[in-house]
Amino acid sequence: MENVHLAVEEDDLYSGYNDYNPTFDSEELENDVGFQQAVRTSYGRRPPVTAKFPGTAIGARPLASSFGVSDGAARPMTAVRAAGYTSSLTRGMTFDPLGQSRGPAPPLEAKNENTICVCFHDVCLKALEKAKEAGRKDRALVKQKELSGKPEQINLDTRYSVLLNLANQYANNEMFQEALNTYQLILNNKMFTNAGCLKVNMGNIYLKLKNYPKALKYYRMALDQISDEHKEMRTKIMQNIGMVFVCMGQYTDAITSFEQIMSNSPNIKAGYNLTLCYYAIGDRERMKKAFQELISVPLCIDDEDKYIPSNDDPTSNLITEAIKNDKLHQMERDRCVEMVKSSQYVELANDLEINKAITFLRQKDINQAVKTLKTFEKKDTRVKSTAATNLSFIYFLEKDFDQADRFADLAMNADRYNPAALTNKGNIVFVKQEYEKAAEFFKEALRNDSMCTEALYNLGLTYKRMNHVEEGLDCFIKLHNILRNSTQVMYQVASLYELKENYPEAIEWLMKVISVTPTDPHVLAKLGQLFDIDGDKSQAFQYYSESFRYLPSNITVIEWLGAHYIETQFCEKAIQYFERATLIQPNQVKWQLMVASCYRRSGNYQKALETYKDIHHKFPENIECLRFLVRLCTDMGLKEVQEYATKLKKVEKMKEIKEQVGLQPDSGRSSSSSSTKGERLISKMRSYPVSNEPYEGSNSKELDASYVDPLGPQAERPRTGATKRIEDDEFGDDELGDDLLPE
């Protein structure tokens, strides 16, 4: 009995729970040399969290039900009373998913500084330093532009990008007040017209700071400033507003936001949150309805699409392949195919094989697609025609026109009324420039299927090549009535009106193209060209400038803008365009000569001399450059005039010798070129009067400034009949439709 102790009222029922093995003491881990060394050598991985109290399986933390903490939470676990849920609190309890009634959660355990999070923190700090450095350089550049009297050259896009990046880096480093100040600085600048969406970022920061009223305020302000055209962004902001209301416990207001999302643009997250909000207010009927709406939201993805690699990450692709080749998935697929083949639905099995080939095409596995389709060569007539049509389509894309012709004939022999096969055959004849025959095949395809848009489109192109403008217009206008928003069709109509020299109609149709694709730089440049031909220089300048803004590497646009500024006597502004052309084509001497000529005509003879010297260093045999160097040095009284005069005579004599023996001078180092279209630009420059001109331009052969149509003949390549949509034109990359089979 000496070892038996009876409990009295003064005894502490919970004594002894703070006595544990010192091995489990985590407070002195920072001073534990062995532990710190282990952390450093394991790339920051920490062991899994175990029970702090060895006497229990979970520890002294109370178990909580989904509605609240049990009333026996303060009592230690015993074998007498069951752990977990209690029935006493399931009635009359309020819905509190965020645990707000229990007060703030205890502070998180401080992370060890030797974990991998330290590396991420270091990266964020370095990024912040780079962002600050970019801000300092941008301010210095702006100050320099203002001091030099050229404030119009300040690049607002660069300033906006620098400030936005700085604000984002402040936010990544949890320097929220600095981030808010930087965002506010951007918003206060009236020059940044599209900065209203940054209020979403400010709302996100206030949400992290749990300042829900301000987060709600900025979300609503951002929603007011974003137009209805940006439907997806407005939906996301509405979803954030709903979540803020949930955090504030205002479930009725949250329901209003989520209901609006589900009525305009339903998605999984909004439907799920709406169901939970109805559960929170206890409205079962509306909760059932919300759940039905949730499960009716389309996923917009086929079962097989989940296994198509969508990125270049090799790890993700390996995981996708592992899932796709899972034994259960393979067994299910094989059993399904075998059951279909052995059933009365044999045609369905053939369709499955065709879809399999199409899936290989979408995965860009051309060899497997061809292998699958070739298995149908000995099948029945309908399947053979379908497979041969797709094979002809594939070989046509690969420019193997002989094989494409062979399979097109095979498809036509199997089914003469197959409009896709006839369209493919017409395409092959079109490539061979036998336009009369191509037109007959396209007409036959249309007789078999009047809604075959590919045949109608290609027939219009054929008429265009045959210079039958009216017939081509008739085809494309009919097609426009079927495909109202097709930019390719509208562009072809504009092109045909241009051939008729009906420039107002061509401009009107290009305006329709711009209404669908407002940022297409080639269409904008084409509009500028047509306005220039029509004599409207101001509109031409506007559209060429817009084209340059979206594609600043188009040499044709750069040339026109530079020539426009020279024509309007603003040679200083023309310099920046020709300098950009020099960066794009550094081996073309003509652009560097343009820059030097602009400096000369603007009266900056010293800068012009330096530029000519630099050109001579790169192109020592360029006669035009040497002539200008001789004249500049003569007028400025420089001693180098004799040196350049000697070099000029030597180069001219070498040119005469080459011409005598029938050799042409190097195009990169000579002032002449095979193209003559660019001569008008230099001729214009020479014809413009310049005050205080010390000398006139030479009478030697002019420089080349090639003018190439940016749209070119690619816009007239035929569309393939085996696909619902395939184009190769100025509007974008080749695009295969989802359905490669004719309906």
Q: How large a portion of the residues is in β-strands, by DSSP E?
A: under 5%
Largest sheet: none
Terminus-to-terminus distance = 95 Å
Number of helices: 31
Oligomer state equals: single chain
* Overall morphology: extended
Strand segment count: 0
Can you tell me the residue ranges where pLDDT is under 50 for at least 5 consecutive residues? Answer: 1-15, 42-91, 665-718, 720-743
Helix and strand composition category? mainly alpha
Overall helicity: 55-70%
Chain-averaged pLDDT: 74
| Rg calc | 37 Å
Write the layout of secondary structure elements.
Blueprint: H1 33-40, H2 116-147, H3 156-172, H4 176-188, H5 198-208, H6 212-225, H7 231-247, H8 251-264, H9 268-281, H10 284-295, H11 314-324, H12 327-341, H13 346-362, H14 366-374, H15 381-397, H16 401-414, H17 419-431, H18 435-448, H19 453-465, H20 469-482, H21 487-499, H22 503-516, H23 521-533, H24 537-550, H25 555-567, H26 571-584, H27 589-601, H28 605-618, H29 623-636, H30 641-660, H31 679-687
